[in-house]
Design a protein that fits this description.
Layout (H helix, E strand, L loop, with lengths): L2 H16 L5 H15 L12 E5 L5 H5 L4 E6 L10 E3 L12 E7 L8 H11 E13 L2 H9 L7 H12 L4 H10 L2 E9 L4 H6 L2 E9 L1
Parallel strand pairs: 1-2, 1-4, 2-3, 4-5
Antiparallel strand pairs: 5-7, 6-7
Length: 216
C-alpha cells in the first residue's frame, strides 16, 4: 500500500468515527453550517420576492437558510424529514414551466445526475431571462474516484462507496462544465474557488468552485 492510500484510509476512517456519513443529526448539522456560510456569497443576487428551486435538495436545509425567499425543494428521493415544500422530481425533466424561476440552486448535486448536461439544459429552460444559476461544484480527479472504488473492500463503508460509484459513472471535468456554460450561453457573474480544507482535497487537488451564472 502506497503513502497516498494510507492517507486516504486515515481520512475516511476519521470521517466514519465522527459519523460524518452515517449520523443523520451530524449530517444535518454540518450541512447547515456550510450552507449558512456559503449562502452569504450569493444571497445578494436574490431578493425576498424571488422564487427558485434547489435541485437535488436532500433535506432542503438551504430553503430554510434562505427564508423568506421562496425555494422549492426538488429531489428524486425526497426524505420524509425534509423542509417543505418538497417536490419529487427529476433534474433532467424539471416539473416547472419555461422561463418561470428567478434562480436555480445546485449544491454538489450534479455528479448524481445520470446526464449532468441535460440537467444543465433543463435549468436554463426553466429560468427567466437574467435568472441566476447558482451551483457549488466539486471537481475530483478521476484517478482519485477510481482508486476509491478499488479500495472499497478494504476501507470504505457502503454509503461512501455508493456515492463515489455514482459519481464515477457520471464523471465530468471542470473543462467539460465550463464548455457547457459557453454552449448554453450563460453569462458568468461570479466564480469563486475555495481553498482545500480536508486532507483528501489537498492530496488529490480537489477543486471546489461556486458558480453564479446568468441566463441570457
Amino acid at each position: 500500500m502506497n503513502l497516498l492510500d494510507k492517507l486516504l484510509f486515515k481520512s475516511i476512517d476519521t470521517l466514519n468515527k465522527k459519523g460524518a456519513h452515517t449520523n443523520p443529526l451530524r449530517i444535518k448539522e454540518n450541512i447547515r453550517k456550510f450552507l449558512e456560510k456559503t449562502s452569504k456569497e450569493f444571497i445578494g443576487y436574490l431578493n425576498n420576492s424571488s422564487i427558485g428551486a434547489d435541485i437535488g435538495s436532500g433535506y432542503g436545509i438551504l430553503s430554510d437558510v434562505l427564508k423568506p425567499i421562496r425555494v422549492y425543494n426538488l429531489d428524486i428521493n425526497p426524505p420524509t424529514s425534509g423542509y417543505l415544500p418538497q417536490i419529487k422530481g427529476d433534474a433532467e425533466k424539471l416539473p416547472f414551466k419555461d422561463n418561470s424561476l428567478d434562480f436555480v440552486l445546485f449544491f454538489y448535486s450534479f455528479p448524481h445526475f445520470n446526464n449532468p448536461k441535460k440537467a444543465f439544459e433543463e435549468a436554463k429552460r426553466v429560468l427567466k431571462y437574467n435568472g441566476k444559476f447558482i451551483a457549488m461544484m466539486e471537481f475530483l480527479r478521476y484517478p482519485f474516484q477510481k482508486r476509491l472504488i478499488e479500495l472499497n473492500e478494504i476501507s470504505m463503508n457502503q454509503i461512501i462507496y455508493n456515492e463515489i460509484n455514482q459519481e464515477k459513472k457520471n464523471y465530468f471535468s471542470k473543462k467539460d462544465f465550463e464548455k457547457w456554460v459557453n454552449e448554453l450561453n450563460f453569462k458568468k457573474i461570479n466564480i469563486k474557488e475555495y481553498p482545500p480544507t480536508r486532507k483528501i482535497d489537498i492530496i488529490f487537488k480537489t477543486k471546489k468552485i461556486l458558480y453564479i451564472l446568468e441566463k441570457q
